[in-house]
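We modelled each protein-ligand pair independently. The example shown here corresponds to the nicotinamide-adenine-dinucleotide entry; the chain sequence is given first, followed by the ligand as SMILES.
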Amino acid sequence: MKITIVGTGYVGLVTGACFSEVGHQVLCVDKDERKVNMLRANKMPIYEPGLDEVVARNVAAGRLRFSTSLAEGTEYAEVIFIAVGTPPGVEGQADLSYVEQVVREVAEHMSSYRLLVEKSTVPVNTAEQIKRTVLRYSRKDVAFDVASNPEFLREGTAIEDALQPDRVVVGVESERASQLLRAIYEPIIARGGGVFVEMGIASAELTKHASNSFLAMKISYINAVSRICELAGADVEQVANGMGLDRRIGRQFLKAGVGYGGSCFPKDVDAFVHLADQLGYDFDLLKNVRQINEAQRDHVMQKIRHELWVIQDKTVAILGLAFKPCTDDVREAASLYFVPRLREAGAMLRLWDPVATDNFKALYPDLAYFTDIEACVRDADLVLILTEWSQIADFGLERLRSLMKCPVVVDGRNMFDPKEMRAKGFAYHCVGRP
Ligand SMILES: NC(=O)c1ccc[n+]([C@@H]2O[C@H](COP(=O)([O-])OP(=O)(O)OC[C@H]3O[C@@H](n4cnc5c(N)ncnc54)[C@H](O)[C@@H]3O)[C@@H](O)[C@H]2O)c1
């Protein structure tokens, strides 16, 4: 089938590449000329493991193309996925201006039936606004449908998630839209890619917000438990293990640390709180999720202050700038909390990340960046771990200790065993463990 994807970011590019991988003809449209030119030159604008191979293979096979023209994208395919950004607005609500702009342009160029699919994360009832906008801006009396197909992929494992999703959630209100989306996902489901779940559009829209907020809640829950563990002399890793082995609870996302970040959880929790508020429900539970997440960062900052006493002129090596491993995405990453605070307090910062440095440098160009851990931690008064990259675990504790001025490690991701760290001579501060 022919498919147009609008927005070639983390979601749009992966979705487009994976649709072409299962045999569809895909045109990816983005207004960012630099991105499109990079993709046409077979260069990836983002870091996502395995993406370059899937893109190269399908471009070579003639199934995947890139364009900056939404007129061309509208003409190209009956089904148009909208995968543009929905960043947080001023009051926490999702900023839908990119979505609206795409819908308006598609409406202006439509000359026969089109199915507009919301792939971006949008508030419930956005489909109604999309319908109104199409009716208002289309120049011809053309039939169309709107559907919701929220995306659940995780950066770092996005290809696997897109080709083998647990479920494909689709919100439709016409048989035609249902059949088109079933045909698109049929090859993915046939490969063993989970369950195709069809529902009403509002329910599909809500499923995305409810899912992400639930996962954020799980992280905040275990972080709250980690604070009690610290006070009670218990070990949160052991507690999480004991809890997570219960299949009703599950081990995933019960990982205490410096809190959640990234382009989705913080903004989606905010948007859900805002949405609930607008609908007349005070979502106190989620407000607490957010507050616990913020407090967790402050709590780790306290550990640094406590250990260094005076931060001024201390050398602090930060390992990990991305919001999680295997991605170059730094949106709402913990590093964006700690770097300005430590800098303001007068620390001399040395930063390392294997893939996210360029994105971070765009925000903080004048800091000291290192391409290897060895150079980064040399003569440091304190090492702060913010992303659980495997390179940090593999680096070697003896080696780390011999390079640092003072062997002090604040580990925001609980990567090491506290007993072993102490035995190796480190002052080691982690989260929720004695
Ligand atoms: N990143 C994730 O892990 C993830 C997972 C699930 C859902 N989502 C949701 O998917 C959506 C996209 O997220 P992302 O991380 O891929 O965003 P992104 O910022 O990486 O990419 C968005 C792209 O849309 C393009 N764009 C904006 N306006 C456009 C227009 N008018 N015409 C053409 N292109 C346009 C931008 O140039 C950019 O390349 C968001 O709603 C997000 O919440 C993201």
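The mean pLDDT is 97.
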